[in-house]
Amino acid sequence: MRKYEVMYIIRTDIEQEQVQSTVEKLQGIITNGGGEITKQDVMGKRRLAYEINKFRDGHYVLVQFTATPEVVKELDRVMKISDEVIRFLVTNDVA
Fold first, then answer.
1. With helix as H, strand as E and coil as C, how does 46-61 read?
2. 16-32 and 69-81 are packed helices; what angle lies between their axes, rounded to 10 degrees?
3. Counting runs of H as helices and runs of E as strands, what totals does the chain give?
4. Rounded CA gap, 87 and 79, in Å?
5. In CATH, which of 3.40.30.10, 3.30.70.60, 3.40.630.10, 3.30.70.270 is domain 2-87?
6. Domains of the chain: which residue ranges?
7. Residue 35 burial (CB < 10 Å; 0-12/13-18/19+)?
8. Global pTM?
9. Residue 38: how many CA atoms within 13 Å on its side-chain side?
10. What is the pLDDT along the chain (95 residues), one digit of tens a residue?
11. Residue 31's pLDDT is what?
12. For 63, how many CA atoms within 13 A lie in the half-sphere containing its CB?
């Protein structure tokens, strides 16, 4: 299992319950695939550096986890098709 880090931004025009369910859904993909979340930080609503799909703000979430590459592929696939996530980046954490 390898160490990874994912940062994603959730739209701000949805309800807080929907933001929480999106975070839990993405957590479930990692844990159900046999991965382990080592740190999760829901940073809250922040201003974006530039406008993305007409959004100026977003809910930032940072997750550090260990998982297999197959889990990361599934997480990537789900984030791409998710309407709630407007931007994300998964990196291999080598530190």
1. EEEEEEECCEEEEEEE
2. 150
3. 2, 4
4. 8
5. 3.30.70.60
6. 2-87
7. buried
8. 0.87
9. 11
10. 899 999 999 999 988 899 999 999 999 999 998 889 999 999 989 999 889 888 999 999 999 999 999 999 999 999 999 999 999 999 997 76
11. 92
12. 23
3-class DSSP state of 15? coil
Looking at residue 92, its amino acid is N
- Residue 26: what pLDDT? 92
Q: What is the helix (H) or strand (E) element at residue 68, kind and residue range? A: none
Length of the chain: 95
